[in-house]
Amino acid sequence: MVPISYYLILAAILFSIGVGSFLIKRNVITIFMSIELMLNAVNLTFVAFAHMWGNLNGQIFVFFVMVVAAAEAAVGLAIIIAIFRTRETLSVDQVNLLKL
Amino acid sequence: MTPMSPHLIWFIPLLPFAGFVVNGLLGRRLSKNVVTGVALFCTALPMLLALWLTATFRAEHLLSLVTGHHIWIQISGFQVLFALAVDHLTLVMLAVVTGVGFLIHIYSAGYMAHEEGYWRFFAYLNLFMFFMLTLVLAANFLLLFVGWEGVGLASYLLIGFYFKKDSAANAGKKAFIVNRIGDFGFLLAMFMMIAHFGSLSFGSVFAQVAMHPQLQGGFLTAICLLLVLGATGKSAQIPLYIWLPDAMEGPTPVSALIHAATMVTAGIYMIARCHVLFDRSALALGVVALIGALTAIFAATIGMVQTDIKRVLAYSTVSQLGYMFLACGVGAYSAAIFHLLTHAFFKALLFLAAGSVIHALSGEQDMRNMGGLRHRIPVTFWTMTAGVFAIAGFPGLSGFFSKDEILYHAFTMPGPMGKLLWAVGLLTAFLTAFYMFRLWYLTFFGAQRFEDHLADGHHGDAALVHARKDTHATVVAEPAHGHGVHESSWVMLAPLVLLAILAVSGGWIGIPMALGGTNHFEHFMYPVFSTSVVPHRMLQAPAVSYTLERTLAAISVLAAVLGLLLADYFYRRRPDALAKLVHNTRGLHVTLVNKYWVDEIYAKLIIMPLMMLGRYALFYGIDLAVIGGGTALSAAGVRGTGGLLRRIQSGNIRSYAGWLAAGAAIILAVTIFGRAILHIF
User: Fold this and answer.
1) Helix (H) or strand (E) run with residue B456 in it
2) How many alpha carbons lie under 13 Å from residue B435 in its C-beta half-sphere?
3) Which whole-number Å values give the CA distances from B13 to B18, B47, B270, B314, in the listed order?
4) Contact of B586 with B415, CB cutoff 8 Å
5) Sequence ranges of the domains in chain B
6) What are the tens digits of pLDDT across the range B213-225?
7) Strand pairing class (B64-75; B78-87)
8) Is B149 exposed, middle or buried (0-12, 13-18, 19+ CB in 10 A)?
9) A51 in a domain, yes or no?
């Protein structure tokens, strides 16, 4: 039996990679992917804890997160395409028109 | 009187208020006839109610009546009721206010017929009637004060009726502000009464004073002196009389109603009402008598040289009010109220007649530009003549009886002060006769001076030699609809005739016993003033002082005749002698024409320092520096902080993400390590 801490450490590493690449990367698609990474790190902890307590709530929550992530991916990709069509770039540093 | 009927008393003040509401809210859309109808109805009915009330009192031998027990203010043990009280003093005041008020309303319908804001005028006039009737009907000091302030408001609105004219607007402000000084005294007096008697109702306060004969002077003197301060403001006495002459900027019916017959007598009414308090303070009574005597002669001397017909009457009013103060001061309250009554008749008449003259001359108020109007406007002439002879105190006319009663009471007051007051009063009577006949001669006799505008100094008043220094108010913009000299319409003349009849006969209700009368008026007032501890002449032994009273009457008649002869000499027969006299007494004349420079002295001594304080300490110091500076400082602080914080909102998504991550990290750190840190402390 793998101790729970292993899962948690792996999830923490995944989450940190997600945060780090979210902060560092300029490409919108990469940023998007790092968000997915963070979500999946959280999913991993949910599943790990669900297994540990023998409780299905965590597993069910993971499904919710995945549904939301799928919906978010659909909307997010649509936004990315819209941005690319108008700005012809995917660099977030150039999408700063809200600041006047 | 049926048990329900006292409630009808409430209609006396409330009807004019209804008139004010109707005309004030809807008047703009109503026709002139409807406005007039509403205003007249709402003053005629209270007059009838007052008459009915008087008849009831007489029929049932009632002494007083209190109605209304609705609690208005209740604070622990202290309460003020919404209550009206009627006694014989109130009945007299009701008669004056509603009677003279109604006649002046009729007159106004003619006088103001061509004015813009006709409805506004009548709305204000009804508002005034409401407050004045509240004032005289009030059963406690607080309700009286409501009326007191309210008439001040109405007075302000009506003085400034021609508000487009700067001088009128300023005169309104002056009246209001000067009255504030008096009101401050009144308020303090009320506070002291609450502190000492725990009540403001007339009944309770006066009963408590009556129950404690040992109360003499002390705080009662303080209360009385503060009340006197209030009365000097409202009744235009030294030192606060200065607003009344300026108040002549208002339309003439206003001057007649508010600034001659009714509102300015409120101070005298109040002192008479509080006679129980004043009787306990010889000092306060002395002050009242002194103020009265001083004002009477002071204003009379100024009145002698004024050239504006309404200003002569204004100073005459101040002087006559001084007479009433004098009467109160010597404890002759009944005589004061008697003079108040007769004065309301003849002074309202004089003002209305003067208004008719002004109307006839299409707005001219300067007597130097009048003259010879005797045959042109005969009805006005004859009615005014009745008023002039009445105020001068010619035997048989109303002013004679009331004035003589005051002089007699002053003379018989124990101590040397009484004789002095009598002498001042007599001199004032002489001056009064002089300046009234001067007005009479200048207006109605001699050559016509109004076509050749601004006559040259050869004829007419030698005051021309020294043209008036004060620029305001001489040349006027009173109602003018330019066509030649004409007698006023009967709407205006009818009140004149009625008032002339009253000015002649009004004194007959108070003919003293010494002159073969019964002094009915004093008997009527006796229940009100009988508690007075100042010895009342009411119950004097007959025939003891009749000789004295007759002699004094003869002397004052002599003074009046002398005034007539002097005016006749200077203004009809020998104008050249007048010019010479003016020349010889140049300094005195200039002083009088400039009204002793009282306005200027006040401006320098009081208004200037206050303006300085206001401008430099309060405006620049407090307003601009502290309040303005403080606001600016806090605004700058907010702006600075905002300037710093707006950098966070860079628009850069990654920096937002950075802040988000940092925030999350901090929250995480606090949740994990916070407890440990708390433990350390």
Assistant:
1) none
2) 28
3) 9, 10, 18, 27
4) no
5) 5-535+543-593, 654-681
6) 888 878 999 999 9
7) antiparallel
8) middle
9) yes
How far is residue B242's CA from residue B235's CA, in Å, rounded to a whole number? 11
Supply the Cα-derived Rg of chain A in whole angstroms. Answer: 17
CA gap B400, B421 in Å, rounded: 18
CA distance B577 to B280: 51
pTM score, whole prediction? 0.79
Distance CA B433, CA B561 (A): 8
pLDDT beyond 50 at B454: no
Is A23–B658 a contact, with Cβ atoms under 8 angstroms apart?
yes
- Within 8 A of B658 by CB-CB distance, chain A residues are 23
A11 within a domain of the structure (yes/no): yes
Residue whose structure tokens are 């006495």: B237
CA distances from B640 to B348, B648, B659 (A): 68, 14, 21
DSSP state for residue B258 in the 8-state scheme? I
Q: What is the pLDDT of residues A39-86, one digit of tens each?
A: 999 999 999 999 999 999 999 999 999 999 999 999 999 999 998 898
Q: Which residues of B touch A31 (CB under 8 A)?
A: 653
For chain B, the farthest-separated pair of C-alpha atoms sits apart, in whole angstroms, at 115
Report if residue A46 sits inside a domain.
Answer: yes
How far apart are the C-alpha atoms of B276 and A85, rounded to whole Å?
Answer: 98
- Cα dihedral B105/B109/B110/B116 (nearest 10): 130
Q: In the prediction, which pLDDT does B474 show?
A: 40
User: What number is the ipTM of this complex?
Assistant: 0.80
- Residue among B649, B653, B657 whose CB faces A95 most closely: B653
- The sign of the CA dihedral A12, A17, A23, A28 is negative
Q: Which residues pair with B79 in a beta bridge?
A: B74
**Is A93 close to B652, i.e. CB distance below 8 A?**
yes
Give domain status of residue A73, yes or no: yes
Domain holding A16, by residue range, is 4-94
Q: Is the pLDDT of residue B152 over 90?
A: yes
**Which whole-number Å values give the CA distances from B59 to B54, B90, B95, in the listed order?**
8, 17, 17
Q: How many residues does chain A have?
A: 100
Tokens of B278: 């004043």
| Residues 6 or more apart in contact with residue B9 via CB below 8 angstroms | B49, B53, B65, B67, B84, B86, B137
Query: Is the CB of residue B67 less than 8 Å from the CB of residue B458?
Result: no
CA distances to B436, B571, B576 from B589, in Å: 18, 16, 16
Which residues from A are below 8 Å from B650, CB to CB? 96, 99
Q: Is the pLDDT of residue A97 over 80?
A: no
Residue type at B666 in one-letter notation = I
Kindly report the CATH number assigned to the domain that includes residue A22.
1.10.287.3510
- The answer to whether B140 and B201 are in contact (CB under 8 A) is yes
Find the DSSP H helices in B395-465: 398-411, 416-444
Partners of B652 on chain A (C-beta within 8 Å) are: 92-93, 96, 99
Q: Any alpha helices (H) in B235-377, and if so which ranges?
A: 243-246, 252-256, 266-273, 275-278, 282-303, 309-329, 333-360
Is B23 within 8 Å of B122 (Cβ atoms)?
yes
A59 contacts A46 by C-beta, under 8 angstroms:
yes
Determine the distance from the C-alpha atom of residue B485 to the mean position of all C-alpha atoms in its chain, rounded to a whole number: 32
Say what the alpha-carbon torsion angle B531, B536, B538, B539 is, to the nearest 10 degrees.
90
Q: Is-cis flag, bond preceding B512, omega within 30?
A: no
Instruction: Please answer yes or no on whether A95 and B661 come within 8 Å at the CB atom.
Output: no
- Return d(Cα B320, Cα B343) in angstroms, integer: 8
